[in-house]
Each structure stands twice: as structure tokens, then as C-alpha cells.
Amino acid sequence: TWEVSVYDATPKPDQIRIARGHLVVNVSEDMLSVLQYFSFMNAGDKTYVGSHPITPDGKKETIRLSLPTNATQISSNEVLDQCCAFRTDEGISDTLAVEPGPKDIVLSYQLPFKSSSVFLDLPLYYPMDALNLLVGDQRVKVSSPQLQPQVLQDMGGQKYLHFSGRNLAANTELS
Predict the structure, then answer these.
(1) Sign of the alpha-carbon dihedral angle for 128, 130, 135, 141
(2) In whole angstroms, what is the distance from residue 37 CA to residue 24 CA?
(3) What is the pTM of this model?
(4) pLDDT tens digit string along 87-103?
(5) What is the DSSP letter of 98?
(6) How many CA atoms lie within 13 A of 34 on its CB side?
(7) Residue 39 vs residues 3, 84, 115, 143: alpha-carbon distances, Å
(8) CA 156 to chain centroid
């Protein structure tokens, strides 16, 4: 016997938010290695099916993830299935329905750079309850208008600069 949950569908994204996010950045001589973890939450009681078609056959965008334009070597966890996630000018759009409850998405990518200053701007398409930024090089200087410095974090014997923010608004840019 299997128990299967069945939900009504909705095209309205008003119950979708990011409950928590983590950005882990490791710095090398000419490259940033970024791990981006977002725990999306459908706080409603209906499956979100999207309303905006993004493919010629009418698949609708349900989750949009921003990526820097120069991101390379992009990979994700199995939640972003190749059948249903598409690279766009802004990042990645998923077309799988979002059932009530959490949906965790992990992306990793590389960002090459050539100057001593690197700007990382990521549009936030959804409200975000909490975000942590961890930077694995204590010699770098990090600033963000949305994130506040915290105490150093030790992960696996490596120390990370730690910044956090709460209640970040949708349709804003994380800098």
C-alpha cells in the first residue's frame, strides 16, 4: 500500500518563498567557486504550477534562480532535472510543479575574474527569510548592504568569513 498526496493546483506564486539560503564562496587566484543552496518553501496548501510559459511547448516557469552572467561549470543537485530546468539569460528556470512544503536546490558554479575587485550581484525573485554568506579567504574584504558581518565560522578545519541577513524582499538585488 502506498499513500499518495494529491493537491489542488494554483498558478499564483504568492506562497513561494526561500526559507533559508546559503552562499559559500571559495577564493582562488583568478576564480571564485560558489555553492548556492536555497531551501524554497511552498507555504500554501496547493501545488504551484506556474503561469508564465518559457518553452515553445508551453512549459511554465515555477522557480527562477539567478546566476551571474559569467558563471561557468554550472552543476546542480538532482532536484533540477534536465527535462524540466532550462538555462536562461538570467540563470535557470525550473518547470516542475512545487508541492506544498520545502524544495531544496543546490547549484555550484565558477566565476572567473581578472581584477582585484569582484562584484557579485544576484537578483532575488522571492522573499528570503534568512541568508548566510560564507567566504573562505580571510584576506579578502567583503561588503554588502543587505548582509551583516558575523563571527568567523569553522567548517572542516577551514575558517570562513560569515555574513547574514534576514527578511530580504522579493524582486531586489543581493549585492
Answers:
(1) positive
(2) 9
(3) 0.90
(4) 888 889 999 999 999 99
(5) B
(6) 27
(7) 25, 18, 32, 24
(8) 23
